[in-house]
Specification:
ten-stranded mixed β-sheet; 10 strands; alpha/beta; Glutaredoxin; 352 residues; single chain
Length: 352
Amino acid sequence: MATEDLPIVLYHYVHSPYARRVVWYLNLRKIPYTECLQPPILPRPDVAQLGVAYRRIPLLAIGRDVYLDTRLILQKLEALFPASEAHPSLAAASDNAEGRALHSGLLSAWTNDAGGLFWNGVFLMPADLPGTNDPKFLADRAEMMGLPRDAPSPISREARAARRPEALCEVAEAMHLLESTLLAGGGNGRNWLLGTERPTLVDIEAVFVFVWLAAMGALPKDTMGPAAFPRLYGWMGRFIKMAEAAEKENGAAKSASGDEAAKAIFGSAFAEAEGSVDGSNPIVVAEGLKKGDLVKVWPTDSGSGHKESGKLVSMSLKEIVVEVQGKEGSVRVHAPRHGFKVKKDVEASSNL
């Protein structure tokens, strides 16, 4: 079965800045999809009925393969939907050495990893931003960060105020970097970070944090506004305009309930062939892993208390795949190697 014939279901909530990256990509590539909207805090029973424990948003299901982490999601969409007349290329970062380095390494870590650009942006959320001072929201995010739900919130109004000066410095430095280097383009200016005719994965990787902060009114206009960073704000404006036009052209996403999404997923085929476990992988060697072992997989930076439990299907230097049992069948959960850990599920194995 062709990938295009499989259901594509995006589990997300409307204001998730990470989910917006995937929505932009799908629309810019003209890939129709279905969305299953989720609450911004736990519980998420729609995700749970897939057998998936992962607590972060978004997740993307293509057939019975479920992909975690936007970095892996975007890479998989690139691989599973090669450029064609139906799905125009984004002049992908993989097309040149500069793009490969920027997307897979520098910009990805710079924007996403703990302590990076997004995490500093969290402390710039305005004091009265709706929902962010709700005790339930603060408790949920504390749990995601590995803290007791009754612990003082690291992103409370007071905590954000205390960290704001440092966060402003970090974000301002990032804005200066883009303004004076990639967007400067040798002094003549560039529309897109790689000097391409259209935005690429590199642009999506970098722009989402700035669009999110600007939309919240989180940046002081006098020192971090359009007058101070004309190239950066011009870049953001061009991207938003193109993304909005692409959304109109691709059409509104279909909406599905959790039951409808699960039925479509469990009733479909896998999007990818079953892989193998690389016996030379240092982690495979150290942990004594082999295909079919019962394992646990979890993110190491946030949401680490939510572990996937299932059979190890494949593992490489870039990806871990486990098969988990859901309400109506099984799915294969794909996690990137970077930022995730895998261990034998000793407790489950001992109960066999």
